[in-house]
Amino acid sequence: MKMLPRIFIYIRNRAYFGAEVRILGGENGRHKTFKKFFLQTIDKSESGVYSVLSTQRCGVLKRKKEAGVMELSERKQKILKAIVDLYIRTAEPVGSKTIAEMPDMNFSSATIRNEMAELTNLGYLEQPHTSAGRIPSPLGYRFYIDRLMQDYRLSVDETKSMNEAMELRMQEFDKAMSQVGKMVSRLTNLPAYAVASHAGTVTVRRFELLMADHGSFILVVMTSDETVKNKLIKLPIQVTEQDLKLLSAVLNASLTEMTAEEFTPEVLNRVSRSAGAAASLVPVVVDFTTHVLEECRKAEVYLTGQTRLLGQPEYQDLEKAQEVLGALDEETISNLPAKLDPNSPVQILVGPENVAQELKDTSVVVTRFDIGDGMQGMIGVVGPQRMDYAKITARLSYFAEGLGRMFGKPELPEAKEKTEE
Q1: What integer is the mean pLDDT of 83-94?
Q2: Reduced DSSP (H G I as helix, E B as strand, rest coil) percent helix, strand, coil of the chain, to 5
Q3: How far is CA 222 from the centre of its chain?
Q4: Structure pTM?
């Protein structure tokens, strides 16, 4: 197909915006014919992925066959990166004049202004006010994170500060996880959370039934993740210590190394038939055991530093701040992805990508670490979409490495000589 001069056709990604065609340049008869042909062509397509045609040799957009991806020219990428970097630092909309004055920008203000307008039409930038500059959109942040963001290298002072924070010796597990959240919040100056969850299934390792007095007994349940729970249960019937020993033996032979889902009626009937005089205690024991296993599977969430959001320019509006702070609780955090891609230990959720609707105007960065005993820890921060993703990612990754060693080994990561790029 012969390309027509002075005409540029682009299509917004259907996955984000729905199909849309615009023609820039003259609208003479030949152009209208070309537009009609092109519209008819995409109307017949059901794939949702379109090629992009451009007559400009500089390649305003390049052909990209991967689903859902529209490739930007190097110039557009350079301008987009500059805008995101500046907005992260200043929290102020960025204008074309500011970009043109940067030492590595060899483009005129008019060219930059046109590129910014096209990036806005493509959905990578937003214009908060008619006369204002541009700010990145969630799509712009996503492209920046996936394609443009440079690695941030921690300085010696940063690694020293984090190592000192992680050298605290914490005794009880719940206090340790709470302290982890506080450390991350303090060193990132953002709300932070720590989550402890089981990496695999939890089963019963052993039952113990101990006679307390003539009217009650103590049920002890030990699970595969080293959890030990006990409960004082009043006896609804008269049983002897021998009856309890028999029931303990039957439970250990029939219900250990099983999940709560495997406590089927058939299994429980078989246990009851073998329990003798203590058969009526089986439902009581199973009810408490099921509760223990379900509690073990729940993720423990420790959230701290919510008020640090008030120090961010985006949340100087009290109404907006109250909306986010009111939604930022353990229940909301527990709805975030519990498992991360093993090939990508750090996960970044930008704005609308968040599962929790309440966090649609924020971003979340989360990573994981091993706690041991079949448990996995996760640490994350919640902040404005404008957060410094490179720096936050580097710090969380270092924390995760150090915490994994702290819970499993005594040594911490070495503080290597690094400088910020």
Answers
A1: 94
A2: 45, 20, 35
A3: 32
A4: 0.65
